[in-house]
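Annotated sample (chain length 233).
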Amino acid sequence: MNYYETLYIVHPSLESGRLKDIILSVEESLKKIGGSPLAMELWGKRKLAYFIDKQRYGTYVLLHYNGEGKCTGEFAVELEQNPNILAYLTTSIEKENVLEQAEDLDTQIAGKTRESQRTESSSEPTKTTETEPTEVTTQENDTIDATADEVTSEGGDEQLDPETETKEADTSEVENEEESVEVGEAKADEEPLEATENESDKKDTADDEVSPEEDIESKQENADETAAVSEEE
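Output written by the structure step:
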């Protein structure tokens, strides 16, 4: 008696109830050709190494059995004609390597179904948490950049450091003090000039005014000249 191991892949779209029917039908067809199923192990849904019938995933089932040499060929034909089987592989094993089935088919299907559901539910929130903060961060960066551009375009000048602003304030104060000193000196220079001009104006006014004595003498001279002209006539 020879011992064999067949690993076959079931279509991933089959639900737990239909999956059980497919596994039982495979074992029934093995019994018809003279084989005897010894142990079955459900590996669950896994990712394929390459696409098979446009499918990326498949449900793996491992079956150990014994039989005559010709049963393997007939069993391969049964698997080939089953439309729900994507692929299969049969190898010869030793009796010591035969598995001891600890759980029945229903328990294994229920456990793999729960495991598959947990994997799908845990993968969905991970994707959302990875994408949402990235979008929010990108929007915040765009808002900050836009605000910086508006401030630069409105302000015109770049922002200065606090030390630079302090230095500029001190320089402006020194310049204001120098300007006030220059204005005071200019006023001091202008005041003597104005006083000198006022004095000269007063002197000119005094020179223009005629004293009363000079006025009387001019009148007498005019009278004498008038009398002399009348005598000559």
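Annotation: The helical segments are 16-32, 69-81, 105-155, 162-208, 212-232.
Annotation: The beta strands are 2-10, 36-52, 55-67, 85-93.
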